[in-house]
Amino acid sequence: MAGGRWGPLLTALLAARVAVAEEAGPAQAALPEERSWVRPMTASNWTLVMEGEWMLKFYAPWCPSCQQTDSEWETFARNGETLQISVGKVDVIQEPGLSGRFFVTTLPAFFHAKDGVFRRYRGPGIYEDLQNYILEKKWQSVEPLTGWKSPASLTMSGMAGLFSISGKIWHLHNYFTVTLGIPAWCSYVFFIMATLIFGLLMGLVLVIISECFYVPLPRHLSERTEQTRRSEEAHKAEQLQDAEEEKDDSNEEENKDSLVDDEEEKEDLGDEDEAEEDEEEDSAAARVDEERNDAQDQGPLREVQEDGEPEPEEDTPVQPSPADTECSV
Question: What pTM, to 2 d.p., does this model score?
Fold first, then answer.
């Protein structure tokens, strides 16, 4: 009896709770979500940053560091009107072309843009630092991305195209392996074959284009050009042969000149030897003549001496002089 008394009451309570839940469900769904002041940037609207002052954040949904700066970046964007700056964000997974255009290699990455001049912000993603960076105009001391590094340059546009193609290939690979359940090696084989076929097709297209724009010469002109080419080759061969002959002749002349010089040197050395021998002979003859002259001069002197000396007397004895005698004691 107790169970029968409480049964209808419990049923009524459950029915009332379900009705309240059904009425509250549409009301909660009708509540608007909190508005985000950060503007998403894509490949179609990124040129807006070329005008005015902007701050961009490159992030990925799986990046923990990017998630840590989300609240700070939202606060910075909420105060963008006060700072007179626009704030945007780029999902590198959905927009690989923009990540290639700005050459993003680390996450999160921040960029400042002022009238189409871009600078890399390397500070922390904290609201106070970002606010001071704008108010104190610290971006003026940062070197801008100019030349080929500028995101608006032709080089970085080509880089954006390459990153876009790589992103599409990556999404296609995920579609094969995750959605369709194809093994990864089959996906790799598919991309390798597609690359080879695409290369062959591009080569064929280039050949066809070259054939379309190539105008063949008439036959008589082609024969003339062939004759002129052969004559030029023969002329070049003759010139080479003449140059080799001149080189050989010059070598022979140099050898002859060297031989003549050697013979002249030898003759000069022989003449010097002969001159030395003649000098020695002349000196020897002069010595002989001097000796003969000395001998001839000494002969008459000896005769005169012999004629002038008196003959000693044999009988007259020689008396000693008083100086020659000694006194005896």
Answer: 0.53
Instruction: Please tell me the predicted confidence (pLDDT) of residue 117.
Output: 93
Higher pLDDT, 57 or 7: 57
Which among 130, 116, 103 is positioned nearest to 48, based on CA atoms? 116
Is residue 52 left, alpha or beta, with left meaning phi > 0 and alpha meaning psi from -120 to 50? left
* Burial (CB count <10 Å: 0-12, 13-18, 19+), residue 140: exposed
Angstrom CA distances, 290 to 109, 286, 287, 295, stand at: 118, 6, 5, 8
Q: What are the backbone dihedrals phi and psi of residue 148, each rounded to the nearest 5 degrees, phi first?
A: -70, -15
Percent share of the chain, pLDDT over 70: 74
Q: Tokens standing for 75?
A: 């606060």
Q: Work out the widest C-alpha separation in the chain, in whole angstroms.
A: 222
Closest CA to 51 of 1, 114, 112: 114
Q: Which residues carry out catalysis?
A: 63, 66
Confidence of residue 201 (pLDDT cuts 50, 70, 90): very high
pLDDT band at 225 (very low <50, low <70, confident <90, very high): confident
CA distance 131 to 123: 11
Q: Which residues of 39-66 are buried (b: 16+ CB within 10 A; e: fewer)?
A: bebeeeebeebeeebbbbbbbbeebeeb
Report whether 18 contacts 64 (CB < 8 A): no
Collapsed DSSP state (helix, strand, coil) of residue 90: strand
Whether 200 shows a pLDDT value over 60: the answer reads yes
Strands 117-121 vs 109-114: parallel, antiparallel or unpaired = antiparallel
Q: Is 305 exposed, middle or buried (0-12, 13-18, 19+ CB in 10 A)?
A: exposed
Q: How far apart are CA 11 and CA 198, in angstroms?
A: 69
Residue 217 confidence (pLDDT): 58
